Amino acid sequence: MDSLLKIADRENIILRYDYIPQQMHPLGFYDKDGEGNINIILLSILKDFPRLLKCILSEELGHHFKSVGHSFYKAINCEFWKSNHIK
Description:
- The protein has 87 residues and is of the alpha+beta class.
- It has helices at residues 2-10, 50-66, 79-85; strands at residues 14-18, 26-32, 38-43, 71-76.
- It is globular, with a radius of gyration of 12 Å.
- It starts with a helix and ends with a helix.
């Protein structure tokens, strides 16, 4: 986990835990606006599930290195994630 946090820090990514509206059903999302601000927002409850947190943070960091321009991506809260990563 420390290495993921170091990558986020090195890339000037603002990482925060927050409430995300349930209708969106995300566990986290990456947002890069047109002004150069980069954010990764993670669902607050992920702090209680370190393995899932690492997985979602890795996914969102991947968008940083593989995406171009304005973007909004989200990791979806699906049964596969719940059954295989929260345990």
